[in-house]
Amino acid sequence: MNQQKDRIRSKIIGHSPALLEAIQKLERAAGRHHLPIVLLGETGTGKELAAKLIHAITRPNEPFVPINCGAISKELMMSECFGHVKGAFTGAIRDRRGVFEQAHGGVLFLDEIGEMPLDLQVKLLRVLQDREIQRVGSEKTICVDVRIVAATNKDLKGMVKKGTFREDLYFRLKGLTVTLPPLRERGNDVLLLADHFLKSIDEDKCFSLKSMQLLRLYQWPGNIRELENVIVAAEATADCREIEVDHLLDLLESDGLLAGVTPTNTATYDIDYSYSSLGDSP
Description:
The protein has two domains: 3-179, 3-Layer(aba) Sandwich (Rossmann fold); 187-277, Helicase, Ruva Protein, domain 3 (Orthogonal Bundle). It contains twelve helices and nine strands. The chain starts with a helix and ends in a 33-residue tail after the last helix. The chain has a five-stranded parallel sheet. Strands 4-5 form a two-stranded antiparallel ribbon. Strands 8-9 form a two-stranded parallel ribbon. The chain is elongated, with a radius of gyration of 22 Å. α1 (3-10) packs antiparallel against α3 (47-58), α2 (17-30) packs across α3 (47-58) and α9 (189-201) crosses α11 (223-237). Helix content is 41%, strand content 12%. It has 282 residues and is an alpha/beta fold. The longest helix has 15 residues, at 223-237. A hairpin with a 6-residue loop joins β4 (132-134) and β5.
């Protein structure tokens, strides 16, 4: 039994067909043990958790190393990825392993790969082809066995047309792609997740009927990450057992997403409001 897979899978909460279809595709893609996988989806849809599931399925006893390609300067990115040797540049006071070496045998998660500089894209393509790297400042090649999982919320195909993403790397990566659905397409999963986040803070608190309707009506442009932040903030400001609409409205973006919604004017959905139904996903 793969306990790590079961643990990660239990964190993916939801019953919607859109989510279950994505998970099935993810598990099938993970079975192709050496091929890279690209995770597509809007910000906050759970791409890193999906990458951890791939790791748990394919290489659970080996490292999982994440790196955010958009959070590191272009000047440091080469060293972060491939490492460097002492004296390679000012400040390189010792040899350092990059994330490819750190992830040897396991999974390297390249988040926001659409932000990767073009010159680094060339080197990534070579790693995928040759399974070898060179530290910055060294001529020695190092063999690496790494499963690449990349993620982006950008249109890579459109970036290829604009010349901001290499076409050869795009075709090398695109064979196994999985799109994670936005929260607005996951139906009552919004309520399952909201209840999960609330109960993780205070098991005695719940949502009123109107607030549940509002949670379903809202479009969640920030997806799961936004939902969690809203629930945490609403719980902190609510001085009663029930989370009401008033506790939520000021926390939600209003740009066309809550037009005409007031505490007494919310949409009606076919929802099972019994909290006994709001359990963990199967």
